[in-house]
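Lecture 7, part B: from sequences to assemblies.

Below are the input chains for today's worked example.
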Amino acid sequence: MVGHLSSADLAVIASLGEFEDLARDRMDPAGFDYVAGGSWGEVSLLESVQAWRRYRFRPRVLTGASKVDLQGRFLGRPAALPIAVAPMAFQVLAHPDAELATARAAAAAGVPFTMSTSSSVPLEAVAAAIPDARRWFQLYNVRDLDFTRSLVERAASAGYEALVVTVDLPVLGYRLRDRRSDFRTPRMANLPPAIDRPSERYGGLDRRSEFVLSWADLATLSSWSSLPVVLKGILTAEDALLAADAGAAAIVVSTHGGRQLDRSVATADVLEEIVAAVGGRIEVWADGGLRSGLDIVVALALGATGVLVGRPLYWALAAGGQAGVERALAILREELAVALPLLGASTIDAIERAHLR
Amino acid sequence: MVGHLSSADLAVIASLGEFEDLARDRMDPAGFDYVAGGSWGEVSLLESVQAWRRYRFRPRVLTGASKVDLQGRFLGRPAALPIAVAPMAFQVLAHPDAELATARAAAAAGVPFTMSTSSSVPLEAVAAAIPDARRWFQLYNVRDLDFTRSLVERAASAGYEALVVTVDLPVLGYRLRDRRSDFRTPRMANLPPAIDRPSERYGGLDRRSEFVLSWADLATLSSWSSLPVVLKGILTAEDALLAADAGAAAIVVSTHGGRQLDRSVATADVLEEIVAAVGGRIEVWADGGLRSGLDIVVALALGATGVLVGRPLYWALAAGGQAGVERALAILREELAVALPLLGASTIDAIERAHLR
Amino acid sequence: MVGHLSSADLAVIASLGEFEDLARDRMDPAGFDYVAGGSWGEVSLLESVQAWRRYRFRPRVLTGASKVDLQGRFLGRPAALPIAVAPMAFQVLAHPDAELATARAAAAAGVPFTMSTSSSVPLEAVAAAIPDARRWFQLYNVRDLDFTRSLVERAASAGYEALVVTVDLPVLGYRLRDRRSDFRTPRMANLPPAIDRPSERYGGLDRRSEFVLSWADLATLSSWSSLPVVLKGILTAEDALLAADAGAAAIVVSTHGGRQLDRSVATADVLEEIVAAVGGRIEVWADGGLRSGLDIVVALALGATGVLVGRPLYWALAAGGQAGVERALAILREELAVALPLLGASTIDAIERAHLR
Amino acid sequence: MVGHLSSADLAVIASLGEFEDLARDRMDPAGFDYVAGGSWGEVSLLESVQAWRRYRFRPRVLTGASKVDLQGRFLGRPAALPIAVAPMAFQVLAHPDAELATARAAAAAGVPFTMSTSSSVPLEAVAAAIPDARRWFQLYNVRDLDFTRSLVERAASAGYEALVVTVDLPVLGYRLRDRRSDFRTPRMANLPPAIDRPSERYGGLDRRSEFVLSWADLATLSSWSSLPVVLKGILTAEDALLAADAGAAAIVVSTHGGRQLDRSVATADVLEEIVAAVGGRIEVWADGGLRSGLDIVVALALGATGVLVGRPLYWALAAGGQAGVERALAILREELAVALPLLGASTIDAIERAHLR
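Predicted structure of the full complex, as structure tokens:
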């Protein structure tokens, strides 16, 4: 393992794809594989990236667009970019500063940060580190509903502005890499040791957080706080409509990084029909496989309100800590700043379906 | 050649694909090629596997499904899984215990075992080994109808509950590997030496078992016993309807492991239209290229009542004998146990066409 | 270069694809490239082979077909197989016996032989070698119409039963291999030295045989003899209809082995629409990329009356002379003998469009 | 780096693709990458080439076409071929004679030459070098409109017959190769040093030539001279119609060599719909990825009036100076001279949509 990159080293990185190899050199192999891997044959893992790249742009010329406004919007409020940091577990595997570094980078870039239930530092510590920045709390049903309720209440107290409820993990996906490496997950700092007991084989989530909630239970969960609820892990128009009916503020179209049901439809392949189905009733965010500003433009053109970016930021964290994540977000910002005028658009809202073939 | 795997070695195997290399190291090369190979350019051999993987899942969330019931059904009666062991010839090539080991593993897992006419132990011995377990007898027309009738009568006496009549082998496929290795098939234990005379070049089936039956002859064959008849090797809706009209209890959509007419349509590509054509009149089983629980879910979603798994179990037999086959079946069981809740389904019957894009 | 194969060596060859490497070892590199190569980027060369392989078979079962009759028909008369030997130039590049060996092998197998204008032995010598066998004469317009007329009259006198007029060579294709090797074609034995003057760069056909005929000129050419005229090199339904109107007895759908206009539509991709367009008025033969009995079954199912096989026989000639070509034809025969019962067909005529998906 | 090729060396080159490796050996790596590279992941760079190759020809026979007339037409006036030299910047990177060599080769071949604003020699010098040949001036909006107006006036004075206004460069594309090599562009000879100040990082065009023109501004630009205006960089039917409405004499369908918005639709994929949209009101030229005469035939069949060829000529310039570019154009001429009779066409105008499948 080699040291973290300096700011000068980071400055010459020009695309998010470069961070993965840098991270591999700086992480424990089993931890790297835990983050990098998907389930079964990792078809969804690969396809989530490729699916965005299948779209082709229809650039418009002489629209006068050269200075652009990249401001995005999540839950009806502005963000510096149409990007938020996706929830990612156990960031201590990447860097000792863990979620603190990632959260500070997000705050510096003006984009919302999603804190995972399975974090390596307590949710309160992240709140204290970025007191004025937008932050959301990702929720698993951990062990039982009583303890889960306590998590919700802590998140609300600590100023998290929304709950991102993960709905695609009733059981843990069948992950070959972790089974082969016999990977054990680290401590979950949000849980007391009595609940975060040493994980059994293949990581503890399969034991600790089986989420057997149904749509009916969701009402209970919502009643515990006044926080808006975002449902993460929707892949069908049917469930998107159920989410809107259930009062969700937004949904995240996601394959959970290709880590749950392999060979699921890719976000890029269902986003448009889901956006059409909800018809503007709630926000639709896109997650999974976004690796460049161009991918994000595709997602926006297909109707996403905004996007979540995950693994590339994890690799950036491993490569350079907070500065690494800042560099990664700066690259996405510049890519958008170049792509929009080339597309003939001056604002995020000006990106539309007709910009894609 | 190296020894068979211990149970501890087997326990770390996490996917069926791992067994093939283990088998190659433990089998005679010509015997391995006989089992592994297909006909002509082996297009169907490859495509039978790939075709399942082209489908994409539409997972449903918050259905409350986390505990699942994996019970399947064949010929109207339950099985522990929607899986049966496909007929496979000459299992002595894989392991000295041959069909006895495979049958015992099937019985232990609660799944039906199909005994091949071309087995390495007599059908009565397998019956004695798993007296209480479901077992079917696969039938070729061997040499002449009189001898074939004696096989049917023996199978009925020995408690086999159905005849699986192979209909896609009027002649042996054009198999390049066997021609090049000058492969000679081993003894067929169900046949007296006078009938199972030393095979001529390229294996004896082309001499011993040419199946010149027509639909009309099928009535004769059915009259020899009260066993239900399953027709294996149907690939068109037209023939599926003829099978239903002829009184078959079930059909097996199959390309015979890619060993007969190369470049035939893949099971995964015709299953749906065949299911639609028979309209529930008879059971439709899927065979060929199923290598994981996800493949099986696809087959079930396309309307198969159940599936047959062949080669992966052959490799598991070569790798670890009965324990190897048990491990392979346990992997399939676990994959299904994870896949169903991720799909939002609690039972095998709950898997439906809408779960596929 | 190594010696020709013995009959024992030939007997273990099981597929036509094996002959190419054997030929490469036995031919001058520039001569091999001349035969093996196509024009421009050789897209058509590759695609002509691949296009047949894209079709999938729909095998029918229990039709009772196991003994099959492989007899084909060309120009209304029977042949042992639905196969004829395609015209191929300069066979001396492959073997000193040149066209004599290929013609004798064709006669032995009962299939028609097409003699090229650009042959290495005179047309009369081939006629003398296979006096009782079916043979056709392939015609280029060489130098001028007067000399071309003399060729037609010689072919008629020597008992050739048809003229196969090549219509896709108004100029020679742009062939990179020959330009790089500075390949010079050998003597054309059918031409007196005064006409077959030493070829200029890239082979002489571009100088000697520019075919500037139009549909109107075809009537003149037909009037020189009573031989039926077959037009070789048709790729559109429009031209197929013009051919029928012009009195052709048959057309050959062909890309000239991928040697003329690269990126032309493949025979397998246009055969069906051409067959439909001519509506049975004339025979439609398929040429190009047929490498196994399965390819031939596809062509027949798409409506071809019969097929021409070229390069594989050239490689077989280089590998083993007459015995090599006989072995190649025997393989095709056996592949057909296996494929037909597996498809559920007893005769060539029983192969139909419904056998393909 | 090795020396330039002799005429004898050039004579054995048979396809444009051979020039790239020859150029790589003769150019500074960063300069080579600047020319060779595209933006982002270089998807458009690759696809621009591949898209032409997806089309298949439908050759017609016996049309009598063997002698062909290759004369093309641009802006209503004849050219020796339906080919013009695309604008390419900084040709000194390829050869010390820079644009002078390329222009002379174009003049010798009878094809129009497009002079870039970003040239390495002044526009007046090129005009003096090919006083009687057709030449166009490619225009960027450099620094400000006043200076840009001076460029237009100089071009008109120097006998350039048209302005080719680049409309797809409001900002410079996101080019990874140049960012990694920290490439600095050379002097722009058309600009006084005060305006052509040393470029900032990644080449100066992003600073010097941001083109913030809108459709309204185009009228101003047109008013500065009587030169017809050609708009280069149109990829949609909508913009093609706007161009016709704005009085453009022609449009160039182009992805700017894959250097601006990556993953844009390829010229070959939108050409037909753009031609249909403009309905003959203005000329439609095709640019991007044309690497052989066959590609050009595809573009013409899709309705292009003519084509621009760029990079292959740049590589030819690097390989052999003026003689290299002449050889490249001679290859294209010969490829067309062979392709047209093989297609059954005698003239450029005879190439039509029905020649493509």
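Note for the exam: The radius of gyration of chain A is 19 Å. Keep this in mind when comparing with the next example.
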